[in-house]
Design brief:
single chain; alpha/beta; 8 strands; 41% helix
Length: 177
């Protein structure tokens, strides 16, 4: 269903590799993501940095998943991008909806975390990620699932926003008292 691509990091001691125009996603970027889409990253690399480190450029629509520190943070690329070694790129290989795969992997995060191995820190290996099974219904069913989940999460997000606003108003009231 997906091709798995590895990430890598150009040498930090070579200034020519940094501050370019290639989006380079890290687990930290995924952790700070507000929503599911990735448009940019905190650090950018140059073409020289890209060529020097062996990372792979994935097309928009690919999914980025953190595989260590922590396992399971996700985002969907809206631009071509590469990652560091703390992430893997999941490039859809058959007709599929990226948002569907995002939801499936989001729901499977505890299972993915359980597959992590290591003594210093847990890491989800390429092998364990490759054999991880995901349900793969026909395209119309994927659309229906995404549409339903988007509608339900929008309701939840609205309820959370309303609760946060009420809490803020109560804090203001308490301060005035």
């Amino acid at each position: 269903v997906m091709q798995i691509q590895n990430g890598a990091t150009p040498s930090s001691s070579t200034p020519e590799y940094w501050d370019g125009d290639i989006v380079w996603v890290t687990p930290d970027d995924l952790g700070k993501l507000k929503g599911r889409y990735i448009y940019d990253s905190s650090r950018l690399i140059t073409l020289e940095g890209y060529n020097a480190c062996g990372t792979t450029l994935a097309p928009a629509g690919s999914i980025v998943i953190s595989t260590r520190a922590p396992i399971g943070h996700l985002g969907i690329l809206q631009v071509a991008a590469c990652t560091n070694q703390g992430c893997r790129l999941l490039v859809p290989q058959v007709k599929t909806i990226s948002e569907y795969l995002y939801y499936v992997l989001f729901a499977a995060r505890p299972s993915l975390e359980a597959l992590g191995q290591g003594s210093t820190f847990l890491e989800l290996s390429r092998t364990n990620l490759r054999v991880f099974r995901v349900p793969f219904p026909p395209l119309p069913e994927q659309f229906a699932i995404v549409e339903h989940l988007d509608a339900q999460t929008a309701k939840i997000d609205a309820a959370i926003a309303a609760s946060r606003k009420e809490i803020e108003l109560l804090r203001e009231y308490l301060t005035r008292l």
